[in-house]
Amino acid sequence: MSGDAILHTRLPLDPAALTSLHRLPGTFVCAQADWLIRDEVFAQQMSYRERLITEHSDKVIAHPSTESGWLSPLIDMILSALDPHYIIGRDIITRPDGHQVARTNDLKMIGQLVQEDILILERDGSEHRLVGGILCFPASWTLSQKVGASLNRIHAPVSAYSDSMNDRVERMFHNLPMDRILARYNFLEYDSPELFHPLGEYETRPQGTRNYLRMERQTIRCIPGSEARVFAIHTYVVDKRKLPVDQVQLVNKIRADRNHLRQSHAS
Q: 108 in a domain, yes or no?
């Protein structure tokens, strides 16, 4: 859908991730300054996000069904995390690529400012539910099918996401300190470098060459003054055939260790 492939040359793998592989779900602490990332394909990804938001807003944005107390603090948090190359004015924010974004109080503006997809989960009793967000680069799922669902329900099609895994993730969401950001990596292989890849529940991707590795850098943090958590996804796509050997080895180690850990917990 995007036309030209938007590819990274390397993956920003944090060595700290390797120390987290002895436990599931494999998270590590992320520095406050590293929450939002502007990388080598910023201009290309942001241009594509603009197009998706303009032409397919119903597919990429899920507005909260009720008035939310988390939106304004979320926007303040994102604006304060932007790097100095953004110019933040009263009515207009100018991105580092020169594009001007109208300053509004909505999810659309968030999607036009940063490469990360932003999803919001609110506490509902003992569970957290997806209540809204902007998802321009879905990795084989559809936002509209997941809104309102609990974490356990969201991951129903994922065979590796067991009840015990859900209990661990829910505890992590419940007990997350206000000043802490957790991060983890997720890896998927695709036939195409396409970033916008929605897929219905229980639909399967066709088998093929799988020459493209898609890495999601997922982060979780609290939104001040609310019971909400923000789940941010920064998407990288590389051509495995051109990925440096040291990176291939590190990715393989992370994936193998994580799979071994899942199997040991399942047995």
A: no
